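G., before I forget:
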Amino acid sequence: MTREASTRWLRVAVIGAAVAALEFLCRAGIVTRLTMIPPSEMAAALYQILADGRFFADMRFTAQNTAAAMALSIVTGFGLGALVHALPRLRRVLEPLFSAYYAVPTFVLYPLMIVAFGIGATSLIVVGAMFGVIAMVVNTLIGLDRVPASFAKTARVMRLGGLRTMLLVQLPAALPSLLTGIKLAVAYSVIGVIAGEFILATAGVGKRIAFAYNDFDTRTMYALLLLIIGTVMVLNAFLHHWEQRLHRRWGRA
Amino acid sequence: MNGARAESRRGDCLWLALGLVVAWHALFLLAGADALAAPAATLRRAAQLLASERFWADATETGKAFGLACLLAMLGGLALGLWLGFHRRAGEVADPILGSLYSIPKITLYPVILLIFGLGLSAKVAFGAIHGLFPVAIFTMNGIRQVPAVHLKTARMFNLSPWATVSTVLMPCAAAEIAAGLRIGFSTTLLGTLIGELFASSSGVGFILIRAMDTHEVVDIMALTFLLFAFAAAANAVLHALERRLG
């Protein structure tokens, strides 16, 4: 067995052992049923929910809003990042603010968005995008910084125009960092949308989780938690894999 | 030369602040007082808050929770990162697991934290700590991994004890990475503590914020957010300066 394969098996074993330990703690009553249900029951409850389609409307609502928030934060973040990159003086004063941005739960401004956009999808999309956009801006800056100067020179020698230089030279060269930005923007958009749904929403998985918690319905609550966390983990693993491949191709581990 | 640059930077900061205030006020005129507070009103309320004793009582509550959470996240993250960076195999096994744990939307876990810890200090601390632990661990691990093997060989040749190896070889060599990890851990722990207060507490700045949200006190929401952001930006600037001195 190669070293990589055995590492992978070891990882599966570690995760398996952690889940088994949790299962044991719950089954033995050391963790009470009101606090947590065993992982096997979470999975069973999730299967039930998916089979009877009870929350499909909420799932669609949350999925659509998160997807829109992700797209909005990625596109706006890239645009703003490119703009700030072109203005080094602005960048110098903005950069310290970027690193403080993620210390503050900006989604507390969500109620103000409800006033502006009404309660519903638009407010949730805006709040999700607002939380994700800065991660994309920061990584766009890093990506454009890493484009070697010789690339720009070559583009000039080839007499590429501004737009073609951007699309054919800078964008591909900055891609690994852009993907890091996309990965983070996705994670933060989900947090923004779910937080909004916790605070106030007409539908959505976050709202259902809050309801289930208030009703002591731990089965539904843990099933939906498993759904969200599982989905985000799969999405993240996929983006991470793609990002690593690009980094390797560009020769930076 | 350096002084002139610092001065031009201060000038740029002023221009930026002015631009932001103008944009903010324009947005206020556009959106109305129900959706946004004017910059002047927000700053006035922020000053009032800073002068009131009740605000400081809540700020102290938050500070206590944040301090404890920071301590847990940083010590835990450092220990975990050191161990995983030192033992290559353990690090390889744990790397993607840490990455996934870092990326999951931990805000969804607030009901779980509430069920385990109940409403109070320990819930906030736990929430803050799970936010900060993983970035500190990941950055520390990567920093330790990049220490050249020859350094470690030299440490062995000098018969350094494990503790001396960590404190005189590994830590100084990985100082820049570790400092970056601690700075990011600081930010995420603050975010986590505040989220904990929003959803799982009955005191602290996060709690008065959620109460202002419930009663739709627009000026309060904006003034509190402004103060939090000012605090985070100031703390970040200090940590950045420390980091540059190390790197």
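Chain A touches chain B through 54 residues (CB under 8 Å). Chain A has two domains: 1-36, 52-249.

More on Monday.
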